[in-house]
Write a structure and sequence with these properties.
The chain has 544 residues and is mainly beta. The chain has 2 domains: 111 residues, Sandwich (Immunoglobulin-like), CATH 2.60.40; 278 residues, Jelly Rolls, CATH 2.60.120.200. The protein contains 6 helices and 36 strands. The strands form 9 sheets. Strands 12, 14, 17, 18, 25, 31, 32, 33 and 36 form a 9-stranded antiparallel β-sheet that branches. Strands 15-23-34-26-27-29-30 form a 7-stranded antiparallel β-sheet, with no helix packed on it. The chain has a 5-stranded mixed β-sheet with strand order 6-7-3-2-10, with no helix packed on it. Strand 31 and strand 32 form a beta hairpin. The longest helix has 7 residues. The protein is globular and about 75 Å long. InterPro entries: Beta-glucanase-like, BGBP_N, BGBP_N_sf, ConA-like_dom_sf, Glycosyl_Hydrlase_16.
Length: 544
């Protein structure tokens, strides 16, 4: 989704960890973590498999009692001396959550004198927020190929899936395509790391949602609001994400349906979790704990955001999602991609690929009178050396239906990219194609001209940088927030009930529930008119 990097930074404590791993005489792994003032600590880990950032892990445990200055735990995980444990830690100290990521340690014998592994330095995490989609003009400025179809625009793109035997695992190499598909159980085509492609395009991943496969899809759990002070919090339950009749539903509901109305203004929403399956995934913007008051209620909407980090990431290739977008005022569905590694730095330096974004509003128009509701969708690339330098308008296009809406039926939203271009399509029709010039996205963005003296984060990389690294897929339904529903745009019959300049956006939004909630049609069809419906996700390797 559209993101703006704020000047606020979230520091990561170096006091948390590291962990020490030993093998007991009985063959069980023992974990020892310094308490150092923490009241509880959670560890997420893989054995001999890298674990970037706070992505989903194979194993995890919550440690709530320290003895002698350490949290200690004996795992039943199958491991042996010399195995490498990749892990990240979360801890709570003085009521605040702290995270340490990208750590690793070696399992040694209980009888061996060990040295504690040195944690990999964790850079402060920039807080990001979404930016409203602007309407791209038919003629783009700057170098690079930018073409336009009758209701579309073009700008440049690239293609791949995390490195395996089928391609490079490159982060910035730009050459070759790679695919990583994993998971222990799956009902559909093989997700093994070896894909035996005899011809191309070669389908290497498919989920048709006969079941909700948790070995592929990880739920994000946070109330941070995506950096835009959105009005939902993301959770993992079958009220907000479920499969039925071969379709994935991502459906927003009222928080009060679960906790009651009083909870919003007097309760405390705690998402810290007690195991790896329900652990808060981001504490940015107080994402793991929110206290409600009359003027600042707890996020009044429950929803879901799923990411493919457990199942696949991709660099070069094609991903297609057949989906039907929601209907309902201020609902914000998105199908998009973020980089696994942030190989070129924090957003937007490492890029973002927005396959589809839309608004569920029924009668919603921008300040030029163009409809921007559920009859309109947009595709975008984000890139730049850092906030606020993100010339997304050079790689953005919108599709507006003249009859019907994108909520009426399923549509195929796809992105295809390789070493020379990135292309978005809707139902097979090209919407946007971005072909960067020889100077890459730095030249396309005209940064030398518009921001002289700035450092090019992609110097020495391929011309497709930052889109020459592995990305993962995200599907979510947000609601409201700041930026994506501009104050100057008009909604009928009820105007936007909050101002982006107000400090009481959530309060004002929820007080107008009698205006917007009826448009969600919650009393009919189990409220599924307000859901993003996904029929399938498919990924192809396009060439050897």
């Amino acid at each position: 989704m559209w993101k703006l990097l704020l000047l606020c930074m979230l520091g990561v404590s170096n006091a948390l960890g590291p962990a020490e791993f030993t093998l007991s005489p009985s063959g069980q792994m023992k974990v020892k973590i310094p308490a150092d003032g923490f009241s509880r600590v959670a560890i997420h880990y893989n054995v001999n498999q890298e674990l970037p950032g706070v992505t989903g892990s194979r194993f995890g445990h919550d440690l709530v009692t320290a003895n002698g200055g350490f949290f200690e735990w004996q795992s039943t995980t199958q491991a042996k001396e010399g195995d490498k444990i990749h892990y990240w830690l979360w801890g709570e100290k003085n009521g605040q959550g702290e995270t340490q990521t990208d750590l690793s340690g070696i399992i040694v014998s209980d009888h061996t004198t060990t040295q504690q592994p040195t944690p990999k330095p964790t850079s402060p995490q920039p807080i990001v927020t979404n930016k409203p989609v602007g309407t791209a003009s038919p003629t783009q400025s700057g170098s690079g190929a930018v073409t336009s179809n009758s209701n579309s625009q073009t700008a440049g793109l690239s293609s791949g899936v995390t490195g395996s035997q089928n391609g490079s695992s490159g982060g910035s190499s730009g050459g070759g395509s790679g695919f990583m598909v994993g998971g222990s159980s799956y009902h559909g085509p093989s997700k093994s790391n070896t894909v035996n492609c005899q011809s191309y395009p070669c389908l290497i991943f498919e989920d048709d949602f006969n079941t909700l496969d948790f070995s592929t899809w990880e739920h994000e759990i946070t109330a941070g609001g995506g950096g835009n002070w959105e009005f939902q919090y993301y959770t993992n339950n079958r009220s907000n994400s479920y499969v039925k009749d071969g379709t994935l539903f991502i459906k927003p509901t009222l928080t009060s349906d679960h906790y009651g109305e009083k909870f919003l203004t007097s309760g405390s929403l705690e998402l810290w979790g007690g195991s790896s399956a329900d652990m808060c995934t981001s504490n940015m913007f107080w994402g793991c704990k929110r206290d409600g008051s009359v003027d600042h209620p707890i996020n009044p909407i429950q929803s879901a955001r799923l990411r493919s980090t457990r199942g696949f990431t991709m660099k070069y290739g094609k991903v297609e999602v057949e989906a039907k977008i929601p209907t309902g005022d201020w609902i914000w569905p998105a199908i998009w991609m973020l980089p696994v590694w942030n190989a070129y730095g924090q957003w937007p330096a490492s890029g973002e690929i927005d396959i589809m974004e839309s608004r569920g509003n029924i009668n919603y128009h921008d300040d030029k009178g163009v409809s921007q509701g559920h009859d309109s969708v947009g595709s975008t690339l984000h890139f730049g050396p850092g906030y606020p330098f993100d010339p997304y308008e050079k790689a953005h296009a919108e599709k507006h239906l003249t009859t019907g809406t994108f909520s009426d039926s399923f549509h195929k939203f796809a992105v295809e990219w390789d070493e020379s271009m990135i292309r978005f399509t809707i139902d097979g029709e090209e919407l946007l194609k971005t072909v960067p010039p020889q100077g890459g996205f730095w030249e396309l963005g005209e940064f030398d001209k518009n921001q002289p003296g700035m450092t090019n984060p992609w110097r020495g990389a391929s011309k497709m940088a930052p889109f020459d690294q592995e990305f993962y897929l995200i599907m979510n339904v947000a609601v409201g927030g700041i930026g994506y529903f501009p104050d100057t745009w008009s909604n009928t019959p009820s105007a936007k009930p909050w101002s982006d300049k107000s400090e009481f956006t959530t309060r004002d939004f929820y007080r107008a529930k009698n205006q917007w909630y009826p448009t969600w049609n919650a009393d009919n069809n189990d409220g599924e008119d307000a859901a993003l419906k996904v029929n399938y996700v498919k990924v192809w390797k396009m060439k050897p």
